[in-house]
Amino acid sequence: MRRVLNWFMVFPTTTSGVASAAAACVLASGLAACAAPREAASAAAAPLRVMVKLARGSEDANAIAAEASRVAGVAVSYAAATSPTWHALFLHCAGSQCDAAIARLRAAGSTYQAVEIDGRKTPAS
Amino acid sequence: MRRVLICAAVAAATWAAPPGLQAPLAQTPAAAAPGTVARVIVKFKPGSALLRKQTLSVTSQQTQQAAALGQRVGIALEAGRGLSDRSHVVIGRGLSSKQLAARLAAESDVEYAVADERKHIVAVPNDTLYATGPAVTATNGGPVVGQWYLKPPPPAGSASAAWGATAPAAINAEQAWNITTGSASVVVAVLDTGLRFEHADLQGGNVLPGYDMVSADSSGVFTTANDGNDRDGDASDPGDFVTAAEAGPLGCSQTNSSWHGTQTLGLIGAATNNGVGMASVGRTVRVMPVRVLGKCGGYDSDIQAGILWAAGIHVPNVPDNPTPARVINMSLGGDVACTQGYIDTIGQAVAAGAVVVASAGNSTGHPVSSPASCPGALAVAALRHVGDKVGFSDIGPQIAIAAPGGNCVNTNAGEACLYPIVTTTNKGTSTPVTTPDGARYTDSFDASLGTSFSAPLVAGTAALMLSVNPSLTPAQVKAKLQATARPFPTTGGTAGTQTCAAPAAGVDQLECYCTTSTCGAGMLDAHAAVLSVSGVQAAISLQTTTPTAGEAVSLTSASTLTAAQSIATYDWTILNAGTTGATITSAANADSVVVSPIAAGSFVIQLTTTDNSGFVSTTTLSVAVIAPPAPPAPAPSAPAPSGGGGALGVGWLLLLLAAVFSLALVSARERAALSAAAARPGRTD
User: Fold this and answer.
1) How far is B252 from chain A (nearest CA, A)?
2) Fewer beta carbons within 10 Å, N or C terminal of chain B?
């Protein structure tokens, strides 16, 4: 239920046509089979999961994703909350596009105190 | 030497500690029936006249001391067993031990007198796997040594042939259970793959529902979660098997389900002394699965959300945890570097009072993995049964302590592992088998090996410590665990074993002799750790709001006491007067004390308490003392030449005039009111 409420696709306001097309495709098909462009399609299949630490805490998933999308310049959807300051986001990007998006997030120091790849841990046995 | 000191301290505290403050132990009734025999441990003050040396045997001296003391209180006393040159047991009749202790404690020559009550040993748990595992066949059974890691270790230096079903690295939970078998008020959160709740040995009533914190991989995609949904209140483990098709996209290997969370949680909270299966360290503490791992592990963000939630800290879009954990176990790890997210969340959890235990990692002697490497985490390395580092364990300066992680002793493929960890699991290779025969235990062939199993032994011990002393902070728990750890052995390993070296990335380091800079403070000793916190902890409360030079400063003892606890003696001392010249100006052996500083600065005062079990605890408090306020300057008779002081003087004069005017006004109104009242008919007042 919460996923239905929280999951959405944000259309970046200042991004490329590729990302917009990808976002539109994702929205329409639920991350299934987006035909074109090729880079956007692969990005939709495996979004990059990152964690951001907000300079000002918030629990508004929509606003957090929208702002991240605006700053990163790629489509961003909300993944999950860790705390009012730390949030996990999906960046819908691929390759160098992701690197640039993360760099833009990290450069926005007044909004994000930290930006980390949401890595994985495994059982220690 | 250190071992000798620890053993001596443990032994001394053991005889001195009656069961009154230990929940599982029977207590002697306080009421005195006719013919009641009272036994009291008496310790005389150093200068007591009763201790005067005489040319008598020790026994004769103690007999005389008992008789003399008895004369003072009007009760015939016999001398019992001597404990030290100043303390021994005295025996009286016709009153209870507690009554006699109270009478003797009031004597000026007596430092303390406490009832010498009986201590009943909690039986070795009757769980079938505790003593020994099932008979070993070609493919299953064992270990022969059962749950060797929970038993008392053999005497130091003893030959391996005499060890039986224990080993030097064993944590001695068995004797810790003589002090406590755990309190249900202590919750241990297990951040892992979730739990198979239906396991017969997890039906002791101490398993909380927990939470499933595993979120989606992307919109509507729940490959990691493997339960088809997002975060919710169902912490059951659906299996973390990875198919060949999933392995590539997820970036891990094809594998069967591990039931890892069921394994780690069982070590802490499996039902114990129920005649079934295994014993757990925490026994009756409550355990709470928090599912943060699924297929190919789990996301940092979900793990960090789990840490916060477990500690009772709000996580958006998730119901708050109604049973915050005092201990959080994380038998998981990954990248070595600790990221800001873990620094923040572990810091918050520790600040909320949770002990955060994490396993070092199993990269064969590489640097400690994250989150064990993070500040505030209590990192645990793994030991072989003899006490040296087991090959797989990672090491480094971040390690706090080491505990058994299971080892097989150079077996060949298909042979029984000799010293594995035994714990709860499920027989399903992919999805769980939920029928009763699906509940299994790991053994010598399906062996539990890894730092994953060292951490729960520490977490369970921390929970026992908090059971007897809930006021402990995470830092105090860590310090006590480390202070009571047994020293690492330097012999007994496989021939050719070297001393562990500082770890280097990418460089394997197999079995080696631990040092305190690679494997932590020493080998976990659950009994010594619990014993070290099982008495009344001294605490000081500053009663004076603003300690001021030249004024009395009042301090009082502020220990938290259970119904069975009391403080027998107080000893206040100024450790460092600093510039204050502070001295104690009241009796230094009462529950409160008055200190008189004569100048500003700070002083350090120490309080040592001895509780009714003989447990001694010391604490200190630094008190800041301010200078007294400067006396008010005399009102100037004329404006000061500079003008500044004169302005203030004018202000005061104006205020004075206003006050006089107000008084005059009030007085006039009161006179008018009285006149009016007197004029009203019928007034009697």
Assistant:
1) 10
2) C
What value does the mean pLDDT take over residues B623-650? Answer: 65
Q: What is the dihedral sign for C-alpha B521, B524, B530, B531?
A: negative
Kindly write down the DSSP assignment for every residue of B70-137, as one continuous string: HHHHTS--EEEEE-SSSEEEEEEESS-HHHHHHHHHTSTTEEEEEE----PPPPPP--HHHH--SPP-
Distance CA B226, CA B290 (A): 15
Q: Cβ–Cβ of A116/B215 closer than 8 Å?
A: no
For chain A, the straight-line distance linking the first and the last C-alpha, in angstroms and rounded, comes to 34
CB contacts of A41 in chain B (<8 Å) are none
Greater confidence (B355 vs B646) lies with B355
Q: Which residues contact B463 (CB under 8 A, 6 or more apart)?
A: B182, B186, B188, B268, B281, B282, B285, B326, B327
Q: Strand B286-291 to strand B187-192: parallel, antiparallel, or no bridges (unpaired)?
A: parallel
Interface test with A, best of B192, B215, B234, B452 (most A CBs within 10 A): B215
Does position B166 have pLDDT exceeding 90, yes or no? yes
- Burial of residue A88 (number of CB atoms within 10 Å: 0-12, 13-18, 19+): buried
CA distance to partner chain B, nearest, from residue A14 (Å): 23
d(CA B368, CA B505): 10
CA separation for the pair B577, B327 (Å, rounded): 38
Angstrom distances, CA of residue B335 to CA of A53, B205, B329, B399: 20, 37, 18, 16
Strand-pair partners of A112: A54
Q: DSSP class of residue B353?
A: T
Token couple for B71 = 């004369």
Peptide bond into A12 cis (omega under 30): no
CA atoms within 13 A on the CB side of B297: 22
Residue pair B349/B328 in contact by the 8 Å Cβ criterion: yes
Using CA of residue A107, residue A109, residue A110, residue A116, what is the dihedral sign?
Answer: positive
Strands B298-299 and B377-383: unpaired
d(Cα B469, Cα B489) in Å, to the nearest integer? 30
Interface of B with A in 493-532 (CB under 8 A): none
Task: Give the pLDDT confidence of B261-283 residue by residue, as tens digits.
Answer: 999 999 999 999 999 999 999 99
- Shortest CA gap B359–chain A (Å): 7
Q: How far apart are CA A25 and CA A21, in angstroms?
A: 6
Q: First and final CA of chain B: distance in angstroms?
A: 86
- Does the pLDDT at position A101 exceed 70? yes
Sketch the domain layout of chain A as residue ranges. 2-117
C-alpha atoms less than 13 angstroms from C-alpha of B440 in its C-beta half-sphere:
21
* Tokens standing for residue B557: 């003892």
Q: In this predicted structure, which of B241-245, B425-429, B678-682 has the lowest mean pLDDT?
A: B678-682
Q: What's chain B's average pLDDT? A: 87
